[in-house]
Amino acid sequence: MTRFAALLFDFDGVLIESEYSGNRHIAEYLTDIGHPTTAEQSMAKFMGLAGADFLAAAEGWIGCPLPEDFHARRQLENERCLAEGIEEVAGAVAFVRSLPAALPRAIVSSSRVRWIRTHLMHLGIADAFEPHLYSGSEHVARGKPAPDLYLHAAERLGVRIGDCAIIEDSPVGATGAVASGAYVIGLVAGSHCGPDHADRLRAIGVDAIARDFAEVAALL
Questions:
Q1: Is residue 1 a part of any domain in this protein?
Q2: Cβ neighbours of residue 214 under 8 Å, at least 6 residues apart?
Q3: pTM of the model
Q4: Domain membership of residue 208 as a residue range
Q5: What residues have CB less than 8 Å from 71, skipping those under 6 apart?
Q6: Mean pLDDT of 187-197
Q7: What confidence category does residue 52 fall into, taking pLDDT thresholds of 50, 70 and 90?
Q8: Which residues contact 21 (CB under 8 A, 6 or more apart)?
């Protein structure tokens, strides 16, 4: 058993390798329209953001409104990913399957529930989380980096937030997780995590860094 009453998992970049693939696509789009951007720059600027927060960051980066076709292009890419699936972050599925069956857990993601559920089904672990799939764009008025989504998930699980551990990978998510009052593990196992990623998460105030899911298990 773990020393926590519940586990809250971010999704993109924690369970699936979507942070790198998504930001690579955004970088390619911005470069194509005349604003040279690398995948690394896209991740540094936009990782963990969604909705209006992402739009503000992207338009601030290029210094003008995004073209009208941006959302259509992103939707096409998202539909491709939903159909084909995205690989797991190394060790994620085995870790989830190793958890005690009675341990409450939830997904806390900026992505929409359809995205979360479809990819959990691709990975074969939807049953490990249903029905506790919570979206910052669907379940709370303020998404990450506000702490609201984590507080909402803990309430739905019937657990005090202070008794939860949260696994986050992005600076935006870590900011909200730390503000929630939970124990926060900064996971840097995804392919999007560069050499300085752990330092960025430490600076935000995460309680511990894990470089893979074996280290997550040891922390729990």
A1: no
A2: 91
A3: 0.87
A4: 6-17+86-219
A5: none
A6: 92
A7: confident
A8: 81, 86
